[in-house]
Amino acid sequence: MFDAKKETERIIAFVRDYYEKNHLKGAVLGISGGKDSGVVAAIMCAALGKENVVGVTLPCHSKDADRNDALLVAEKFGFEMLNIDLTSVFDAFKNEAGKLGDFTEEELKNSDINLKPRLRMASVYYLAALLSATRGGTYIVPGTSNACELYVGYFTKGGDSVYDIAPIYSLTVDEVIKVGEVLGVPEKVLYRTPDDGISGLSDEDKLGVKYADIGKVICGEEIDEKEREKIERLHKASAHKFNIPVYRKER
Hints:
By secondary structure, this protein is an alpha/beta fold. The protein contains 11 helices and 4 strands.
């Protein structure tokens, strides 16, 4: 039985202990307006103090509603919020890449979708380095991926797969919501239908499976066999995202 209150306390203690042992100061994280980044922001504020947490919105041909929901989280927990609009950066990159050839929208689709989180993560790390240089201590980047996303490889290599500490790495979507309830994450954010803010589709529409079913697979619970097979196919197909082959010369 998942005890959300106790688990929340353990996660906060885990973060605080890591920071103390490694003499770190603060955290910089992208705030998307979704539950994962909202819960992680709340965890970091509880562990470090709101004065040591900096959120950043990173619109890139994005909906205004996403930033408005992100601001709800910042207002609730009182941490500093910055904004870096990446739309012109994305467009400039696309313009340069367009010189490589004449490609169809369908051919470009996957590259475009994954470019956005890669630009966003580069921006978050840029800010972390800048704040480390100017605020008298080291700022690191927390990850916001949950166990369900990770199990089926629903993340971008070199994008949201890059982070320095992972507070909700082992929590299913349902467990993230329960922790968010304990922490008081705004309901509009916590119960929002998850989407990538990029494709116009919900996460579940894109994946073709339900997060609740992924959670059941992770927890060893029974689900429809056809759904299990779909989930396991996604899991196996994303193995390359976790295991980087390294050639080692003989010595």
